[in-house]
């Protein structure tokens, strides 16, 4: 599990693990990519629902838009690590961009009948719940995104990509299996965050 960070500690932008937000301009390539990811969400939805949502060409287009948006998450994190492009805006906008993209894709697939609603609901409850937990303990300290959370997001992205792509029925079992793993990691990492929050609160109370 990731150790809690003290209130004075600075968290990096996106997936980065080092750097400081001091004297870093808000308008930098990492933040631009984050904003681009947010801007691609409505574009993705328009393409996904075009022509009843099941036309092969449009589904390929939706898969490509989703893939481009997901890749920017990796790129902006790498740029932030390499060049120290850390800003308060980036620390706030990056997780919002991730949740907006994943949430839009899951809800869209469920509306189209391609993904069971219970999967979308479980993942949505986890994401909203953890966000509320973070705010609940923020006065005691910040719970950073751990390795498990990053793996969870990566698996979710691949699983969603497979559901979006017009794959033949013969390989659909792979999509179902990967989505099952994504749901497991979603619940597991969610419980991990709750445990960290409890430990953080108890540690502050007992000190």
Question: Top keywords for this entry?
Answer:
mainly alpha, 207 residues, globular, 6 helices, Four Helix Bundle (Hemerythrin (Met), subunit A)
Per DSSP E runs of 2 or more residues, the count of β-strands stands at 0
Number of helices: 6
As a whole number of angstroms, the C-alpha radius of gyration is 18 Å
Report the CATH topology name: Four Helix Bundle (Hemerythrin (Met), subunit A)
CATH class: Mainly Alpha
Oligomer: single chain
Low-confidence spans: 1-21
Number of domains: 1
Structural class: mainly alpha
Largest sheet: none
Tell the overall outline.
globular
User: Could you report the average pLDDT, rounded to the nearest whole number?
Assistant: 82
Distance between the termini: 21 Å
State the share of residues found in helices, binned by percent: over 70%
* CATH architecture descriptor name: Up-down Bundle
The CATH homologous superfamily is termed: CDP-alcohol phosphotransferase transmembrane (TM) domain
Subcellular location: Membrane
Pfam family, one: CDP-OH_P_transf
Keywords: Lipid biosynthesis, Lipid metabolism, Membrane, Phospholipid biosynthesis, Phospholipid metabolism, Transferase, Transmembrane, Transmembrane helix
Main location: membrane
